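note to self: the first set is below, dont mix up w the second
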Amino acid sequence: MTKTTLVYAAFVAAVIVSQVSCTKADEDDVSELTGNWIRSSDFDGNARSEAVTFTIGNKVYLTTGINSTNQRYNDLWEYDINLKYWIQKAPFPGNARNSAIAFTINGKGYVGTGYDGSNRLNDFWEYDPATDTWTQKASLPASARYDATGFSLNDKGYVCAGFDGNYLKDLWEYNPSGNSWTQRASLGGSKRSAAMSFVLNGKAYVVSGNNNGSALNEMWTYDQAGDTWTQKRALTPVSDETYDDVYASIARYNGSAFVTNGRAYITAGENGSLINNTWEYNDADDLWTEKTPFEGSARTGTIAFSVADRSFVLTGRNGSLAYDNMYEFRPADVYNVND
């Protein structure tokens, strides 16, 4: 997730002119939507956007990111959703960076790629929570990049797309047992950066993303066994049917995706302006349903995680302001303006 310092500064200037923000969703707008956002424990570290997160058991880990003055971070924080507090752990030993990728395999966290303010990166690191230690692993054997998307499937990790000076669509598979990388079938459709991804019922999905400043209306699913990609329904109202008549606000980039209770969700991000609406995806019928908008200030560069069917969205930025707050999303609850 995103940009060089020059591009970041340009984005900030643009958003200051046409900033979109809210403190709570308008009650009239959400009267027919379900889902409720609840303010949760603030992140203990410095406010930031474009960080990464991975989960191990009931613990969540957050590292890297960039603040509103372009300072980048390499601190690591652990959060226990039951104890509801953050603990600082051994810092990430690579260069401080933003726009990296992260995923979990077999109880260990992995972080790599990104942008350190001068260079695009392709290094790759493993975190062991049992010893609170980091180990450098084989670098991604492809162009250094940022704004890629990462996910894990069946004990393998994947890095897809991103930006290396050009938009990308390649897919690389990491095998921790051999500390090795293998190139797999490239993502279909357009090249992209800052896409969202999630894993649902044994398949990975790559959603939307940025190509030359436009949010793509594509979603693709990856079948690991067949090493194949399948395109799903478009994310904009382009069909002759009625199901997508309300799809005008799904496509975006630099947003967050998470999975809970057998459904996937996307929220926040940008598409010309900042976005706070939330959408639920049902893979059984390949359809999206709008949910209650994210109830914090509209923002981009957020991160999200799910643990024990509880889902949270945190950090991000809105114009020149970076955030350290966190919200829990309860998709089946009735919207409550007073919580």
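second set (the one i keep forgetting abt)
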Amino acid sequence: MRYSSKVVERLVNQYKEISLLGKVSALLGWDLNVNLPSRASETRASQEAFITKLISQRWKSEAFKADLASANKLKNLNPHELAIIRNLNHSAKFYHKVPEELIVEFSEASSRAFVAWRSAREKSDFSIFAPHLSKLVEINKLIAGHIGYKKNPYDALLDMYEPGLTAKECTQIFAGLTEGIGDLLKSIKKSKTYKTQKSSEDQEFPVESQKQIANFVLNKIGYDFNSGRMDVSAHPFTTELGAHDIRITNRYSPHNFIESIMVAMHEGGHALYEQGVDEEFVNTPLEGGVSLGIHESQSRFWENQVGRSEEFVDYIAATLKAFYPAQLAHDDARSMYLKFNAVRPSLIRVEADEVTYNLHIALRFELEEALINGKIKVDDLPKIWNAKMKKFLGVVPSSDAEGVLQDVHWSYGSFGYFPTYTLGNLYAAQFTHFMKKEIDAPSAIKSGNLGIILSWLRENIHKHGSYYWPNELCKRVTKKGLDPKYFLDYLSQKYAALYV
């Protein structure tokens, strides 16, 4: 990449160290989730805090701050340079406004909180995690105050994951979605299909065969195993350790073979995005996905628009029956399709169906916004969680593990993250609508020729990395900004035909 300004070139060279340190931190995080011995948590917290301090020092160096200030005054920069400065300004808000000691404290607190969360979840005891969560909530309040906001401190946290997103916008989005989804869910529950659908949870599907199927699916969608790997963790995730080291994790339930397939496609979607970014952007402020909302659009696209489509289920059915001849002996095309798309209000977000999934996110958004604004207390979360589960989904957890402790994100201190899952669903449906105007996606899926779809994503989304801001990218792909109508139409058309 050529730069017209020596100042911008210096900034990019300085940023390279930040990027490399960030990948070292990501490696520590991957190991924390996948391999870390139970007694090593304090050592890991110190290691991550040290790397965090080094990253913070580079962001806060006088040379870097001076060059960024100078770059903001430059005229006639080329589009790439303008995007670089925009991205640096956005990220710098955290490091330039939040004191270094608070950043380091946040890193240490989240490392300890993860270990506490894991123990609390295993024992289904929220009290083990509560003091750690309380500390992370207070730190996030301080961070929001340092970054600054107009009306709502939660806005400052949302902006770190999705540039410009506000609590007001989230409230409007969720209001429309919960109403539309609520109406659809009522219709589904009245259908004969809903009343007669059966669960296959009493059957067993060996984990080893699930791993083979997950590998098959990842290869089919185009995940490059020479530039990544799949391991096991309590909560599946994707992490970038380098341009050619994009790792994912999965989890397996012996009574639910569909979950591991969907996780593989979901995390594989994240990984494909990172593997498809223009290599010219490596270790520059343009590397990686532009926002979590756009990132989630890629994971949710492969999981739902492809993985749960009638065409894909038809394509993979023969493979599944080869692995599970006895368990799936009585399944025809229709019943197999229904297995992948069974609507059943449930307790666990990551196991939720397409129709009810965003109700889980709406619940978490309301809780996060209330916590950051001091409307509710951490100690009251289990009780409030259960009440909102009954309100949104009509089910109530019987334990902390299947309720307030089910998600890992709060142990990372990631407040403002959850709404991006819903944004991802909205973007995915909108992108798919316009993709189908350019390529015959259903036929490609039915034949297993998924390279055609991946090529479209590479050209329209992946290769751009963080060059275009989310709404600008959406307008480039679909000729308009984000519109929840595409998602609601997609759900209504699909499930009205499925649940009759």
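remember for set 2: The longest strand covers residues 245-250.
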